[in-house]
Amino acid sequence: MRFQLCALLANGLMLSTSHYTYSQEGCQKDQRCTMVVYSEQTDKWQIINKSRAERAFSPFSTYKIPNTLILLEEQKIDTKTSYKVDTHAYPVQKWWPSVWQSDDIKVKDAFSYSVLPLYQMWTNSLNKPEIKTYLSQFNYGNQDINGPLDEFWLNSSLQISAMEQIEFLRRLDEKTLGLSKQTYQTFDAIFLKQSTSEYQLYAKTGTGPIAKKTYLGWYVGKIENAQGTHYFAFNMHAPSFKEMVNVRVDKAHATLKALKII
């Protein structure tokens, strides 16, 4: 199961780096998706499919947001060092993208390209009491890390809803997670996905199987534009991994466009 899941995640990375388009239909009422947007300056919530927005799911790679914060705070990683996967602990698989096999992986690339075995190595340098303390401090999802130390965020014990993702991102921006100033500043640069003359996009994807012929896809983050800061959390179901990674980001962006955020 571990290698199958990793393969799906890796393949998804290669498919999801295409240019964003808005031809994809956005999330609609009663579809198997949700979008939550909170606009800070206007104190406005926009929610599509509220009951689903309140339903908790595995965070998959969106867990790299709190995980990176913990690792930075504990000084397990830094942005100047180059890293490589320990292939004795995590043997190279034929489906690994080339970036996973590099001897010169920076933290921002590990985050952006979801270098799972590297994050698993880093997480193994922590222990469950440490992680539990941080997730309680963050009030992140159900805070349940009873699953394997290097997999509890991969369709295992840790669960979080779209509404909870928003609240966590707001606490992150408000710097009320109990972390150092340096950690917040460093992570901000890691989280930045795209900067244009009209907006700055901070985002993280996450995808994986949760049941037979059922895949979950996440897209969470924030957009800063002339109207202020807009936090968003999107998730959807798809019957196949290929279908998921072909549409998840486009569908989320189309929804944000329909809600007049971008």
TrEMBL record:
<dbReference type="Pfam" id="PF00905">
    <property type="entry name" value="Transpeptidase"/>
</dbReference>
<dbReference type="InterPro" id="IPR012338">
    <property type="entry name" value="Beta-lactam/transpept-like"/>
</dbReference>
<feature type="domain" description="Penicillin-binding protein transpeptidase">
    <location>
        <begin position="37"/>
        <end position="240"/>
    </location>
</feature>
<dbReference type="InterPro" id="IPR001460">
    <property type="entry name" value="PCN-bd_Tpept"/>
</dbReference>
<protein>
    <submittedName>
        <fullName>Penicillin-binding transpeptidase domain-containing protein</fullName>
    </submittedName>
</protein>
